Amino acid sequence: MKINVHFTNHHFDDMYFTGKTSVAIDVLRATTVIVTALVNGAREVIPVNSVDFAMKISGNTFGGQTILGGERNTKMIEGFTLGNSPLEYTPEIVAGKSVVLYTTNGSKAIVKAKFSEIQYICCFNNLPAIANHLCLLNKDVEINCAGTNGNFNMEDAICAGRLINEMMNFDNTIEISDEGKASLNLNKSFGKNILKMLRNSEHGKLLIENGFADDLKICSGYGISNLIPYYVSGSIKKYDAEIVNNINNETKISEDAEEK
Amino acid sequence: MKINVHFTNHHFDDMYFTGKTSVAIDVLRATTVIVTALVNGAREVIPVNSVDFAMKISGNTFGGQTILGGERNTKMIEGFTLGNSPLEYTPEIVAGKSVVLYTTNGSKAIVKAKFSEIQYICCFNNLPAIANHLCLLNKDVEINCAGTNGNFNMEDAICAGRLINEMMNFDNTIEISDEGKASLNLNKSFGKNILKMLRNSEHGKLLIENGFADDLKICSGYGISNLIPYYVSGSIKKYDAEIVNNINNETKISEDAEEK
């Protein structure tokens, strides 16, 4: 099994992730929000890469069950019901709903990898579950860090490093790219106390300045959920072994058909 | 003084570096080639971001004194006189010449930062001299790693980390971005034996496969030159205090004029 890490993804065209197994990471805060929303009963999360598209698919498109969430430069967007704090995604608000999510980096990173065979959503909250699942899956993995405006960010790189570290506890034959080795090293140096690391990060400091200090506590919770959210056909749902097997079988069937 | 590092630069528009002090790094091999060419007497190096443009400005444009060098995906380009191995840039071949350089990552990274107030060219060969010079200059610095096709690469990040480390020996009050902290950490973990690090890097392995193992020895030479190459108005020359002071004065004058 080979693991590749990408600190950023702005330079990829939409085809880069085609057919690959990918993992999206945006610790502060999109992937933590997605895990929280699904844990609290959201039917699905629909990540989008523009506010216009978020507006377009909201409202009655899904029978009035959609709710708009997200941020632009950490701030709430006019016309949206929710911001990008996981604390807002309570069961009372999101249960049974389709959450349409637009964020500056995270939702765009997920949409960028939309042609992945399957894309998982990871944050510290569900990292051990994702690591375990990927090892059982035993396929090459592309870890897609959202980064910040096309730049590296510390928290996503460290989360990627921790994910690889956990996977190596299951399987020590894993091959790792240079970017993966760098992630592992950063996790070893800075990842021991996740909350402290988030508070010291540039993005973490900005969130604290903007009144979101409590979000960092939620985002630092390690392995507090076993949820495995996956993105396929435009929406993120809780992992369901049966559905995913069907997707994989369909891919297999279409590959077989091509061979014939 | 603040130091910012960029592992990649594909996501920047041409204006990002405007008016800033920047340092280009492409250890394997463009910035090592540039330092070598200037040490060996090249009049200047003209980095370009397309093969077409290299062809256009070659030949008689500069009175027959140009020579085309570079590579595409580590291979020599048809119609070019030199590849991208520093070993080719001997005094016999480059002395007195304007070298037009096109490379997959390095020359493009330099052109990307073309609107810097001043841009320095750094590799391990001249790193201590650059560190010393930047500390005397005492301005905020943007370190622009070429990376590989828009991705992070290990050797440029470690070179950036070493540069920051050397600068901190002069000035321990320097402020460093998260990307700078990551570089410092990677240098500490992997930068002790530069040649070994280059041989273990993905790019280094590719060069060895393609017959350029000796290049890694040249590229790992630490502080073997005091040359300070700087890019301004489309060409890279050896640093000359008088010229650079004139440039800075002109900038100062135009800023004063704007204020009035």
Summarize the amount of helix of chain A as a percent range: 40-55%
Strand order of the largest sheet of chain A: 8-1-7-2-6-9-10
Looking at how many chains there are and whether they match, the oligomeric state comes to homodimer
Largest interface pair: A-B, 24 and 24 residues
| DSSP summary, beta strand count of chain A | 10
* Measured distance between first and last alpha carbons of chain A: 28 Å
Q: Classify the fold: give the CATH topology of chain A.
A: putative 2-phosphosulfolactate phosphatase
For the sheet with most strands of chain A, the description reads: 7 strands, mixed
Give unreliable regions of chain A as ranges: 251-260
How does this model look, in words?
2 copies of one chain form a homodimer. Chain A is of the alpha/beta class and 260 residues long. The first copy, chain A, has one domain: Alpha-Beta Complex (putative 2-phosphosulfolactate phosphatase). The first copy, chain A, is 42% helix and 17% strand. Chain A contains 11 helices and 10 strands. In chain A, the strands form 2 sheets. A 7-stranded mixed beta sheet of chain A has the order 8-1-7-2-6-9-10, sandwiched between helices. In chain A, strands 3-5-4 form a 3-stranded parallel beta sheet. In chain A, α8 (194-200) packs across α9 (202-209) and α9 packs across α10 (213-220). Chain A is globular and about 50 Å long. The interface between A and B is medium-sized, with 24 and 24 residues.
